[in-house]
Amino acid sequence: MRFLVDAQLSRRLCYQLRARGHDALHTLDLPEGNRTPDAAINQLSVAEERVVVTKDADFVDTLIIQGVPYKLLLVSTGNISNSELEALFLQHLGALVTGFEVFDFIEIDRTALRFHF
User: Fold this and answer.
1) Residues with Cβ < 8 Å from 84, sequence gap 6 or more?
2) Is-above-0.90 flag for pTM?
3) 69 C-beta neighbours (distance < 10 Å), count
4) Which long-range contacts (CB under 8 A, 24 or more apart) does 31-34 make?
5) Which domain holds residue 13?
6) Measured distance CA(72)–CA(53) in Å, rounded
7) Mapped to the 3 state alphabet, what secondary structure does the chain carry?
8) How far from the centroid of its chain's Cα atoms is residue 35's Cα?
9) Residue 2's closest CA among 39, 45, 56?
């Protein structure tokens, strides 16, 4: 699976995803880095069929209204350490990959995955 991790999340998450065979980019890997506008993130997501991983709920609005990004994983954990977040992702990675075969929008929090549409 291909991921694009947004600025509020650690680049280490990309390393963990890559170590498990996924193609993962962080906004720091893009020409504008963490200043990459949401519209550019959406455009890249669609062009390269990448799941946007973000804490930014604005992406939910653009998904509903404009149909972008390609797919969305909203992180709704509140403040959480990078290590805890990585462990949470790895715990649910199989379910996320399977879920994105059917759903375009999944939300992850500290206790569950929510499959929206």
Assistant:
1) 77
2) yes
3) 25
4) 34/7
5) 2-115
6) 6
7) CEEEECCCCCHHHHHHHHHCCCEEEEHHHCCCHHHCCHHHHHHHHHHHCCEEEECCCHHHHHHHHHCCCCEEEEECCCCCCHHHHHHHHHHHHHHHHHHCCCCCEEEECCCCEEECC
8) 17
9) 45
Token pair, residue 7, equals: 């600025």
Integer angstrom CA distances of residue 43 from 4, 66, 67:
11, 11, 11
Q: How many domains does the chain have?
A: 1
Q: For residue range 55-65, what is the model confidence (pLDDT) as tens digits?
A: 999 999 999 99
Q: Tens digits of per-residue pLDDT, 90-108?
A: 999 999 999 999 999 999 9
Question: What CATH number is associated with residue 53?
Answer: 3.40.50
Tokens standing for residue 53: 């991983």
Distance CA 73, CA 76 (A): 9
